[in-house]
Amino acid sequence: MFTRAVVSTVLLFASLINAAPQRTQAKQTSQQGAAQVPQGISRLADGSTMLDATVTVNGLPLRYRVAGPASMFKTASRVQGASAAANATGSMGLNVLLHGDGGQSFFAFPNAPTQANLMGVAVLAPNANLFWGGGSGLQRTNGAAHSAAVAALVKNELPKVLAFDPGNVWFTGVSGGALMLSGFFVPAQMAKFPNAGVLLACGAMPPQVPFVDSANVVANTRIHFQSTVNELQSLQGSIPAAVAAYERVATQAGLGAEEIAARMTVDNSPVGGHCAFDGRGFGSGVKLVADSFSDIMQPGGNGQLPGVGDVRRTVVGNEKLVFGAQRRQRAA
């Protein structure tokens, strides 16, 4: 039987516990939040099929989304209506998108609709913060490893579930994804994807790793740098530096001004903040550029970004972009 003193001591201890500050639940990482979004197979509004899956590449978990006609998928994908043979390639190419910091464009999947015979692919960064290349800002400490994993995903893993033309693979980078593409992927991995191109939207930096087969890469790769007037201050320095660096590689490879103009273009005329190419917001701006990919990047395109005009200005003589005060626009 408890004595009165013991009972008093127990009650006092309980009251102290209740009065103590409660330990708050640990804030989940962006990667943990993304994991709560279900993977699987779904049908998109345009009638295409989307496969959302994860595969381990070079020891890294890479979640990807790919959208296209069901008939282009292979039986290993488990897509209903998949009919491509296990070893088949296809007539359609890919437009592979690397999202910005935080992963918004992965889930929005703005390049999902088939455009000019390119099926859409989006890849999620294998990082707790969903930052391509890891690190932060202009310091992408895992850029080389992430780039190698993306290349291996496209070359070795996607062919297991999808029939596509391996000689027609293009890339889109958004913000942090553009930093990784320009800083690491293009110099180290682009030689594996000849005769295609890279659209660098609201982000770019000079090559951060040795350039592999630079002469062939710059001679056979279409590169477009797209920014806005009110870009982030840090990118107002790194984007022009990237333009100058890539132009310098092309010049050293023996390309003349006209040849460079046909391959490398730049524009920052949209009046808007970071990625707000429509002047309204990040998401809607990225969607505008994604919808204009073929016009800007591919042969026969008219270069038009709706509401802006032809954005294909040669990098030659346009290295020093003129910016205004930075503006952050996240709405729309």
Word description of this protein:
By secondary structure, this protein is of the alpha/beta class. The protein has one domain: Alpha/Beta hydrolase fold, catalytic domain (Rossmann fold, 3-Layer(aba) Sandwich). The protein is 32% helix and 19% strand. It is built from ten helices and twelve strands. The strands form two sheets. The protein has a ten-stranded mixed beta sheet with strand order 1-2-3-5-4-6-7-8-9-12, sandwiched between helices. α4 (143-157) packs across α5 (176-189) and α6 (214-220) crosses α7 (233-252). The radius of gyration is 23 Å and the shape is globular. The chain starts with a helix and ends in an 18-residue tail after the last strand. Residues 1-22 have low confidence and may be disordered. Keywords: Signal. It comes from Trichodelitschia bisporula. InterPro entries: AB_hydrolase_fold (IPR029058). Residues 1-26 form the signal peptide. This is Alpha/beta-hydrolase.
